[in-house]
């Protein structure tokens, strides 16, 4: 059993990574239904929350069916981060997660996200202050380091643990790598194998198949996997990993009918939550994966990603379901 604070999780839990414009309540609900053990919100700007920016405030919406759920925040100013905790606590999350890993320039340039990897002392002191400011478990998501020459993740993780961090998720790339090249899980294993570490150490990056998840568990000995891009438009991934762990066999892929039904639900939930314009727009990125592997699908995909009217998108779903029916897409 794995614990984050008082939250009890199964052995080797699967966590839905926080992803901008992806990990919203509709998608988190679908992932939870399909085996995710913990889900995280999109990352939320501390400065945006303090300014009461509508987009930041909307990201605080969480629902009982998602639990346990973590709200992830980012920033580099202590006063702002502490004020943010007070705002976030009103949404009653189970976990507060600090983003020390986002590599995007507009975040890094403000010293936030992965930008803080240039100032480990600030990273530690911010975490310590936030831990002291809330009774909720505080976790951290970060990267191996700023670049290859500055990887100190074993020391960094130990220092974060020592100031009260309840769990750490580590992406196996540096900020300099962005999302290029292969994720390196060995330094994450070095963190886990540090005899002074006693909090959960989760791996992140390139968990693209059940076999890769098993490798992270069995070869690298990590406590769990935080999974991001493999789940976009494919919430079934979590159950597929668990089935493989339990049986050594691959779970049958969802039929086109099942894929269409979930895509339809996803779009409707998104519209209900954020309105027809944003609902249609922000769900588009999922369609490539919902229908990945269907031959001669370009015509339908173009309709899905260019239609602004929900009725047209739903009509395209109906066309796909009628044409492809119970076809099962082969393993990809």
Could you list some keywords that capture this structure?
single chain, 332 residues, alpha/beta, TIM Barrel, Non-ribosomal Peptide Synthetase Peptidyl Carrier Protein, Chain A, 14 helices
Description:
The chain is an alpha/beta fold and 332 residues long. It has two domains: 2-247, TIM Barrel; 256-324, Non-ribosomal Peptide Synthetase Peptidyl Carrier Protein, Chain A (Orthogonal Bundle). The protein contains 14 helices and eleven strands. The strands form two sheets. An eight-stranded parallel β-barrel has the order 3-4-6-7-8-9-10-11, surrounded by six helices. Strands 1-2 form a two-stranded antiparallel ribbon. Strand 10 (201-204), helix 9 and strand 11 form a beta-alpha-beta unit. The longest helix has 28 residues, at 256-283. The two termini are 32 Å apart.
Structural class: alpha/beta
The tally of helices reads: 14
Give the DSSP E fraction (strand runs of 2 or more residues).
Answer: 5-15%
CATH architecture type of the largest domain: Alpha-Beta Barrel
Number of domains: 2
Name the CATH class of the largest domain. Answer: Alpha Beta
Tell me about the largest β-sheet. 8 strands, parallel, barrel
Oligomeric state, counting identical vs distinct chains: single chain
Mean pLDDT: 90
CATH 4th-level superfamily of the largest domain:
Aldolase class I
User: What is the tally of beta strands?
Assistant: 11
Low-confidence stretches: none
Portion of residues in helices?
A: 40-55%
Secondary-structure element pattern, one letter each: EEEHEEHHEHEHHEHEHEHEHHHHH
Briefly note the CATH topology name of the largest domain: TIM Barrel
Shape: globular
Q: What is the CA-atom radius of gyration, in angstroms? A: 20 Å
Strand order of the largest sheet: 3-4-6-7-8-9-10-11
Give the terminus-to-terminus CA distance: 32 Å
């Amino acid at each position: 059993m794995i614990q984050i604070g008082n939250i009890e999780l199964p052995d080797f839990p699967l966590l839905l990574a926080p992803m901008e414009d992806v990990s919203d309540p509709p998608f988190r609900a679908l992932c939870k239904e399909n085996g995710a053990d913990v889900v995280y919100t999109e990352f939320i700007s501390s400065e945006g929350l303090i300014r009461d920016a509508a987009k930041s405030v909307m990201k605080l919406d969480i629902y009982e069916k998602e639990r346990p759920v973590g709200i992830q925040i980012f920033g580099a100013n202590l006063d702002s981060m502490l004020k943010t905790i007070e705002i976030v606590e009103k949404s009653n999350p189970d976990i507060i997660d600090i983003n020390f890993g986002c590599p995007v320039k507009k975040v890094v340039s403000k010293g936030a996200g992965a930008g803080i990897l240039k100032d480990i002392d600030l990273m530690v002191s911010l975490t310590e202050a936030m831990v002291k400011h809330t009774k909720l478990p505080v976790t951290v998501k970060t990267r191996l380091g700023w670049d290859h020459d500055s990887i100190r993740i074993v020391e960094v993780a130990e220092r974060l643990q020592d100031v009260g961090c309840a769990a750490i998720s580590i992406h196996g790339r540096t900020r300099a790598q962005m999302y290029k090249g292969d994720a390196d899980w060995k330094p994450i294993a070095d963190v886990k194998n540090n005899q002074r570490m006693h909090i959960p150490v989760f791996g992140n990056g390139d968990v693209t198949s059940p076999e890769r998840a098993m490798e992270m568990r069995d070869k690298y000995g990590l406590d769990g996997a935080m999974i991001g891009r493999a789940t976009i438009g494919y919430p079934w991934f979590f159950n597929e990993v668990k089935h493989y762990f339990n049986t050594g066999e691959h779970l049958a892929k969802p039929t086109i009918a099942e894929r269409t039904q979930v895509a339809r639900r996803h779009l409707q939930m998104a519209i209900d939550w954020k309105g027809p314009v944003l609902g249609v727009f922000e769900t588009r990125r999922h369609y490539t994966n919902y229908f990945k592997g269907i031959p001669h699908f370009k015509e339908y995909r173009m309709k899905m990603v260019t239609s602004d009217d929900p009725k047209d998108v739903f009509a395209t779903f109906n066309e796909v379901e009628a044409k492809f029916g119970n076809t099962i897409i082969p393993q990809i």
